[in-house]
Design a protein that fits this description.
Keywords: Signal. By secondary structure, the protein is an alpha+beta fold. It is built from 3 helices and 8 strands. A 5-stranded antiparallel beta sheet has the order 1-8-7-4-5.
Length: about 180
């Protein structure tokens, strides 16, 4: 019985160590641009691997507010980033759905450090994110260690058409390591 309990304790310790020394995401830089039609102000800063955002909405965020995510990787000795995958999501639908996804898990974790709202419409006002760090469990297993760039374009309309109306662009560079 003691050997069995010792094995359980060892497995638990190994699992905890794996979480501590597991993957890490280090934010390197971030930049943004925004449309004054939708935002009075939007700022993104990264200090000591902690992300901060401040934004003032000019108008409510309504259903139909979408995001185009483009995750890019720069291979060793390469000058440019290459797109690994991209996806378009309806922001209101993703945040309010019961279904869990990688993007929803990021948003859910961010809400612990912010006053972001889960439902639409998001009313005019001041919103913030303070001292958020991406946890090791928030990366997809297929992502290899390396330099990444995430580009997110928030918009209304249909991406890449005349109805496309850009509201916000974010670019975040990070390093993923084991």
């Amino acid at each position: 019985m003691c050997k069995f309990l010792a094995c359980i304790v060892f497995v638990q310790l190994a699992f905890q160590i794996d979480l501590v020394v597991g993957r890490s995401v280090e934010f390197v830089t971030g930049s943004c641009s925004y449309s004054p039609k939708y935002f009075k102000n939007f700022s993104l800063t990264i200090v000591e691997n902690l992300m901060n955002m401040d934004m003032d909405l000019n108008r409510p965020i309504q259903r139909g507010f979408k995001a185009h995510f483009d995750i890019q990787l720069r291979l060793a000795n390469a000058k440019n980033f290459q797109s690994m995958f991209n996806q378009k999501n309806d922001v209101c639908a993703v945040t309010s759905s019961v279904k869990n996804s990688l993007f929803k898990s990021w948003f859910k974790d961010m809400t612990k450090y912010s006053n972001f709202m889960y439902n639409c419409p998001v009313e005019v006002g001041h919103y913030y994110l303070r001292n958020w760090r991406m946890g090791s469990s928030m990366t997809h297993k297929f992502l290899i260690p390396g330099e990444y760039r995430g580009k997110v374009s928030f918009f209304y309309g249909k991406y890449g058409t005349k109805s496309f109306e850009e509201a916000l662009n974010l670019t975040i560079d990070a390093i993923l390591s084991n």
